[in-house]
Design goal:
single chain, Immunoglobulin-like, six-stranded mixed sheet, five-stranded antiparallel sheet
Length: 249
Protein backbone atom coordinates (compact mmCIF):
# COMPACT_ATOMS: atom_id res chain seq x y z
CA UNK A 1 0.00 0.00 0.00
CA UNK A 2 2.78 2.44 0.91
CA UNK A 3 4.70 1.54 -2.23
CA UNK A 4 1.79 2.49 -4.53
CA UNK A 5 1.07 5.72 -2.67
CA UNK A 6 4.73 6.74 -2.69
CA UNK A 7 5.02 6.01 -6.41
CA UNK A 8 2.00 8.24 -7.12
CA UNK A 9 3.48 11.04 -4.98
CA UNK A 10 6.81 10.83 -6.83
CA UNK A 11 5.08 10.90 -10.24
CA UNK A 12 3.03 13.96 -9.22
CA UNK A 13 6.18 15.66 -7.94
CA UNK A 14 7.93 15.04 -11.29
CA UNK A 15 4.91 16.46 -13.15
CA UNK A 16 4.92 19.57 -10.94
CA UNK A 17 8.65 20.13 -11.49
CA UNK A 18 8.26 19.78 -15.29
CA UNK A 19 5.28 22.14 -15.24
CA UNK A 20 7.30 24.70 -13.26
CA UNK A 21 10.21 24.45 -15.71
CA UNK A 22 7.91 25.00 -18.68
CA UNK A 23 6.18 27.90 -16.92
CA UNK A 24 9.43 29.72 -16.25
CA UNK A 25 11.42 28.97 -19.38
CA UNK A 26 9.09 27.86 -22.22
CA UNK A 27 5.58 29.32 -21.95
CA UNK A 28 4.79 32.86 -23.16
CA UNK A 29 5.68 35.15 -20.27
CA UNK A 30 3.57 38.03 -21.58
CA UNK A 31 0.23 36.23 -21.33
CA UNK A 32 -2.21 37.05 -18.53
CA UNK A 33 -1.98 33.55 -17.13
CA UNK A 34 1.82 33.38 -17.04
CA UNK A 35 1.93 33.82 -13.25
CA UNK A 36 -0.22 30.72 -12.80
CA UNK A 37 2.23 28.57 -14.79
CA UNK A 38 5.10 29.93 -12.67
CA UNK A 39 3.90 29.90 -9.08
CA UNK A 40 1.20 27.22 -8.90
CA UNK A 41 3.57 24.38 -9.93
CA UNK A 42 6.24 25.73 -7.59
CA UNK A 43 3.81 25.58 -4.68
CA UNK A 44 2.64 22.12 -5.74
CA UNK A 45 6.23 20.88 -6.03
CA UNK A 46 7.07 22.21 -2.55
CA UNK A 47 4.02 20.53 -0.98
CA UNK A 48 4.54 17.25 -2.82
CA UNK A 49 8.26 17.31 -2.01
CA UNK A 50 7.39 17.56 1.67
CA UNK A 51 5.04 14.59 1.42
CA UNK A 52 7.63 12.52 -0.45
CA UNK A 53 10.33 13.35 2.12
CA UNK A 54 8.04 12.36 4.99
CA UNK A 55 6.95 9.15 3.27
CA UNK A 56 10.49 8.03 2.44
CA UNK A 57 12.49 9.17 5.47
CA UNK A 58 10.16 9.80 8.44
CA UNK A 59 7.08 7.61 8.31
CA UNK A 60 7.26 4.15 9.92
CA UNK A 61 7.10 1.20 7.52
CA UNK A 62 5.72 -1.12 10.20
CA UNK A 63 3.55 -0.50 13.29
CA UNK A 64 4.79 -0.60 16.88
CA UNK A 65 3.56 -4.16 17.47
CA UNK A 66 5.37 -4.44 20.81
CA UNK A 67 3.79 -1.26 22.12
CA UNK A 68 0.34 -2.49 21.11
CA UNK A 69 0.82 -5.61 23.26
CA UNK A 70 2.74 -4.37 26.32
CA UNK A 71 2.30 -0.58 26.23
CA UNK A 72 5.01 2.05 25.94
CA UNK A 73 7.15 0.82 28.85
CA UNK A 74 9.65 -1.41 27.07
CA UNK A 75 13.42 -1.51 26.66
CA UNK A 76 15.83 -1.63 23.75
CA UNK A 77 19.35 -2.56 22.78
CA UNK A 78 20.79 -1.19 19.51
CA UNK A 79 17.53 -1.35 17.56
CA UNK A 80 15.97 -4.48 19.10
CA UNK A 81 13.18 -3.65 21.55
CA UNK A 82 11.97 -6.08 24.21
CA UNK A 83 9.77 -6.47 27.28
CA UNK A 84 10.06 -9.05 30.07
CA UNK A 85 7.04 -10.26 32.05
CA UNK A 86 5.68 -13.27 33.91
CA UNK A 87 2.49 -14.88 32.66
CA UNK A 88 0.52 -17.88 33.81
CA UNK A 89 -0.20 -20.48 31.17
CA UNK A 90 -2.43 -23.53 31.41
CA UNK A 91 -2.55 -25.82 34.47
CA UNK A 92 -0.93 -23.23 36.74
CA UNK A 93 2.39 -23.21 34.90
CA UNK A 94 3.99 -19.75 35.07
CA UNK A 95 6.18 -18.55 32.23
CA UNK A 96 8.88 -15.95 31.91
CA UNK A 97 7.88 -14.27 28.64
CA UNK A 98 10.19 -12.07 26.59
CA UNK A 99 8.44 -10.14 23.81
CA UNK A 100 10.87 -8.72 21.26
CA UNK A 101 10.72 -6.57 18.12
CA UNK A 102 13.37 -5.70 15.54
CA UNK A 103 13.08 -2.05 14.46
CA UNK A 104 15.32 -2.55 11.42
CA UNK A 105 15.23 -4.53 8.18
CA UNK A 106 18.24 -6.84 8.69
CA UNK A 107 18.50 -9.71 11.13
CA UNK A 108 20.14 -9.35 14.53
CA UNK A 109 21.69 -11.58 17.16
CA UNK A 110 20.63 -10.75 20.72
CA UNK A 111 21.70 -11.77 24.22
CA UNK A 112 19.65 -10.56 27.19
CA UNK A 113 21.02 -11.16 30.69
CA UNK A 114 18.46 -11.49 33.50
CA UNK A 115 19.60 -11.31 37.12
CA UNK A 116 16.88 -11.97 39.70
CA UNK A 117 17.51 -11.83 43.46
CA UNK A 118 18.71 -14.98 45.19
CA UNK A 119 15.29 -15.82 46.61
CA UNK A 120 13.30 -15.79 43.41
CA UNK A 121 11.50 -17.81 40.75
CA UNK A 122 13.06 -21.07 39.63
CA UNK A 123 14.12 -21.97 36.10
CA UNK A 124 16.39 -24.85 37.05
CA UNK A 125 17.60 -25.95 40.48
CA UNK A 126 20.60 -23.91 41.58
CA UNK A 127 20.29 -21.54 38.62
CA UNK A 128 20.06 -17.79 39.28
CA UNK A 129 21.32 -15.66 36.38
CA UNK A 130 20.02 -16.60 32.97
CA UNK A 131 20.33 -15.41 29.39
CA UNK A 132 17.93 -15.29 26.49
CA UNK A 133 20.04 -15.89 23.38
CA UNK A 134 18.22 -15.66 20.07
CA UNK A 135 18.16 -14.46 16.48
CA UNK A 136 15.50 -12.03 15.27
CA UNK A 137 14.86 -11.46 11.58
CA UNK A 138 14.38 -8.01 10.10
CA UNK A 139 11.15 -6.37 11.27
CA UNK A 140 10.15 -9.48 13.20
CA UNK A 141 7.92 -9.36 16.28
CA UNK A 142 7.78 -12.41 18.52
CA UNK A 143 8.01 -13.91 21.99
CA UNK A 144 10.11 -16.41 23.91
CA UNK A 145 8.52 -18.41 26.71
CA UNK A 146 10.49 -20.08 29.50
CA UNK A 147 8.56 -22.11 32.13
CA UNK A 148 9.38 -21.18 35.74
CA UNK A 149 8.43 -22.32 39.20
CA UNK A 150 7.15 -19.68 41.65
CA UNK A 151 7.66 -20.41 45.38
CA UNK A 152 4.45 -19.98 47.37
CA UNK A 153 5.81 -17.13 49.52
CA UNK A 154 6.53 -15.07 46.40
CA UNK A 155 3.12 -15.49 44.79
CA UNK A 156 1.21 -12.22 44.66
CA UNK A 157 4.40 -10.16 45.14
CA UNK A 158 6.77 -8.39 42.76
CA UNK A 159 10.36 -9.45 42.22
CA UNK A 160 13.00 -6.87 41.17
CA UNK A 161 15.12 -8.13 38.28
CA UNK A 162 18.20 -6.56 36.71
CA UNK A 163 18.42 -6.43 32.92
CA UNK A 164 21.36 -5.96 30.59
CA UNK A 165 21.56 -6.73 26.90
CA UNK A 166 23.77 -6.71 23.83
CA UNK A 167 22.89 -7.03 20.15
CA UNK A 168 24.66 -6.99 16.83
CA UNK A 169 23.61 -6.80 13.19
CA UNK A 170 26.10 -8.89 11.17
CA UNK A 171 25.03 -7.16 7.93
CA UNK A 172 24.42 -3.69 9.43
CA UNK A 173 20.96 -2.57 10.53
CA UNK A 174 19.56 -1.77 7.11
CA UNK A 175 16.42 0.28 6.61
CA UNK A 176 14.63 1.58 9.71
CA UNK A 177 11.10 0.17 9.87
CA UNK A 178 9.94 1.57 13.20
CA UNK A 179 11.00 4.85 14.79
CA UNK A 180 9.98 4.57 18.44
CA UNK A 181 12.92 3.67 20.69
CA UNK A 182 12.64 1.79 23.97
CA UNK A 183 14.36 2.64 27.24
CA UNK A 184 18.03 1.83 27.58
CA UNK A 185 19.35 -1.11 29.59
CA UNK A 186 22.75 -2.11 30.90
CA UNK A 187 25.45 -3.89 28.96
CA UNK A 188 28.12 -6.53 29.44
CA UNK A 189 31.12 -7.92 27.61
CA UNK A 190 30.46 -10.84 25.28
CA UNK A 191 32.44 -13.08 22.96
CA UNK A 192 30.00 -13.60 20.09
CA UNK A 193 31.90 -16.48 18.55
CA UNK A 194 31.88 -18.45 21.80
CA UNK A 195 28.62 -17.45 23.45
CA UNK A 196 26.00 -17.20 20.72
CA UNK A 197 24.15 -20.49 21.02
CA UNK A 198 20.38 -19.86 20.91
CA UNK A 199 18.42 -20.85 23.99
CA UNK A 200 17.63 -19.86 27.56
CA UNK A 201 20.81 -20.76 29.41
CA UNK A 202 22.44 -20.34 32.79
CA UNK A 203 24.79 -17.37 33.09
CA UNK A 204 27.53 -16.48 35.52
CA UNK A 205 26.50 -14.41 38.51
CA UNK A 206 29.96 -12.84 38.41
CA UNK A 207 29.27 -11.11 35.08
CA UNK A 208 29.50 -7.36 35.46
CA UNK A 209 26.27 -5.71 34.30
CA UNK A 210 27.13 -2.07 33.66
CA UNK A 211 24.22 0.36 34.21
CA UNK A 212 21.69 -2.46 34.50
CA UNK A 213 18.01 -1.52 34.37
CA UNK A 214 15.62 -2.83 37.02
CA UNK A 215 12.17 -4.17 36.21
CA UNK A 216 9.62 -5.49 38.69
CA UNK A 217 7.98 -8.76 37.72
CA UNK A 218 4.61 -9.67 39.23
CA UNK A 219 4.45 -13.26 40.45
CA UNK A 220 1.04 -14.88 39.74
CA UNK A 221 -1.09 -16.45 42.45
CA UNK A 222 -1.79 -20.16 42.22
CA UNK A 223 1.28 -20.86 40.09
CA UNK A 224 3.14 -24.16 40.27
CA UNK A 225 6.06 -24.02 42.69
CA UNK A 226 8.07 -26.30 40.42
CA UNK A 227 7.99 -26.76 36.67
CA UNK A 228 5.58 -29.51 35.76
CA UNK A 229 6.24 -30.88 32.33
CA UNK A 230 8.91 -29.82 29.81
CA UNK A 231 11.17 -26.99 30.95
CA UNK A 232 12.34 -26.16 27.43
CA UNK A 233 12.08 -22.64 26.08
CA UNK A 234 9.87 -21.86 23.09
CA UNK A 235 10.27 -19.07 20.55
CA UNK A 236 7.28 -18.02 18.46
CA UNK A 237 7.09 -15.49 15.64
CA UNK A 238 3.98 -13.33 16.07
CA UNK A 239 4.60 -11.16 13.01
CA UNK A 240 7.13 -11.48 10.23
CA UNK A 241 9.03 -8.60 8.72
CA UNK A 242 9.71 -7.95 5.03
CA UNK A 243 11.68 -10.47 2.98
CA UNK A 244 15.40 -10.07 3.65
CA UNK A 245 16.96 -7.43 1.48
CA UNK A 246 13.64 -5.90 0.38
CA UNK A 247 13.37 -2.15 0.94
CA UNK A 248 9.89 -1.16 2.06
CA UNK A 249 8.30 1.97 0.67
Amino acid sequence: MHETRNLILIILLIVAVIWAFLGWFVFDQSSSGAWMHRYVPLLAAAVLGGFVWYALYVEDRMPDDLGEVVGSNYHEVDGVAFHLSVRQAEKGQAQLTLHYMNRFANYAQVIIHVRPPRDSFVVRKGMRDLRFIFKVNGGEFGAIHQPIGVPRHLQGTTVPVQLAAVARFPRAQGQRLRSREGGRVGMFAVDWAQEFTPGVVEASGATELAFAATVHLSMPMGANEVIKGPDAWKQEVLKQGPPEGKVMG
